[in-house]
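Budget justification aside, the reviewers requested a transparent look at the raw inputs and outputs of the sequence design task funded under Objective 1. We therefore reproduce one unedited record. The lines immediately below are the structure tokens for a 318-residue chain.
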């Protein structure tokens, strides 16, 4: 072959097909991203050499050189593999354990949980032995949405309670709920990613700018420091620089009704998600300003009452 390269040279050793969206691990082995996702569901290790692997299979960067070779020399085969991979991804249903939360957690946001119930001790144990992932689900009737949390650190007390640190990575829909055998009530579910609809960054640049402005205004009004206590000490400089991630990041800043937060979490249209986040931010700004206005009116009323009372006492004394 004149080009010196055949498809077998770029074959995935897991699925035995042409690599698609190749990912190279720290140990040097390369496989399809879809194959890595399925492998990480079982063990956090390379499926070839069993070297420990903490890579985020969804977010890990593609191997640029191999991607370039595939697109240059095997364009038709890669297009066909893309179609196959999309079908496989749609049909594949990962199962993850569920953690019921009183809040809605979002991708790209850091989280901390204190787990002490036996079922959640089992969750932590299973996660640490496997892919270090679970789904945080707001405890709302009829809710089928959640956020995958990747555990970054666990601090355990002598009596088995756990302080779990993690980060949201992916919004998902849940189905096929099953209770874990001997799991003290721990439940797992099949998950389906809430993927963004195809769009260009230019489609959302106006709303992106509006959201960034709203965040800046909100932080400026934040005299109590509540938003900085939520991990926003660096302000807008800590925000993601892409519209998709920013919409989640911004939505996690404010206290809005759980129904609104779930609407944002389940929205696959980036522009619509930015609109919802912007409206939530602006609503928070209005409420803060109204609260300050009310406080000022109350203060003026108290001052007026005090002056009137003092004047009356003065006149009565005469």
């Amino acid at each position: 072959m004149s080009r010196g390269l055949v498809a077998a040279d770029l074959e995935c050793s897991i699925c035995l097909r042409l690599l698609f969206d190749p990912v190279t691990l720290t140990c040097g082995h390369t496989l399809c991203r879809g194959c890595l996702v399925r492998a990480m569901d079982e063990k956090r290790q390379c499926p070839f050499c069993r070297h420990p692997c903490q890579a985020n299979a969804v977010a890990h960067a593609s191997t640029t050189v191999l991607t370039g070779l595939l697109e240059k020399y095997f364009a038709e085969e890669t297009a066909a593999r893309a179609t196959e991979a999309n079908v496989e991804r749609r049909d594949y249903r990962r199962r993850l354990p569920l953690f019921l939360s009183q809040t809605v957690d979002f991708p790209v946001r850091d989280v901390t949980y204190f787990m002490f119930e036996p079922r959640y001790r089992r969750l932590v144990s299973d996660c640490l032995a496997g892919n270090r992932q679970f789904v945080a689900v707001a405890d709302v009737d009829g809710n089928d949405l959640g956020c995958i949390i990747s555990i970054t650190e666990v601090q355990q007390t002598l009596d088995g309670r756990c302080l779990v640190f993690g980060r949201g990575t992916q919004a998902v829909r849940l189905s096929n709920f099953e209770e874990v055998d001997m799991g003290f009530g721990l439940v797992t579910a099949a998950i389906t990613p809430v993927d963004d609809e195809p769009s260009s960054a230019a489609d959302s640049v106006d709303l992106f700018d509006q959201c960034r402005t709203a965040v800046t205004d909100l932080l400026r009004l934040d005299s109590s420091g509540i938003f900085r206590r939520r991990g926003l000490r660096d302000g807008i400089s800590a925000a993601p620089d892409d519209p998709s991630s920013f919409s989640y990041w911004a939505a996690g800043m404010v206290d809005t009704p759980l129904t609104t937060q779930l609407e944002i979490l389940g929205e696959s249209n980036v522009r619509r998600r930015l609109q919802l986040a912007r409206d939530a931010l602006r609503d928070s700004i209005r409420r803060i300003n109204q609260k300050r206005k009310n406080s000022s009116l109350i203060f003026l009323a108290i001052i007026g009452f005090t002056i009137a009372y003092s004047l009356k006492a003065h006149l009565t004394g005469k």
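The CA atoms of residues 169 and 223 lie 30 Å apart. The helical segments are 33-42, 64-73, 75-91, 118-129, 205-221, 243-251, 258-265, 270-317. Computational costs for records of this kind are itemized in the attached budget.
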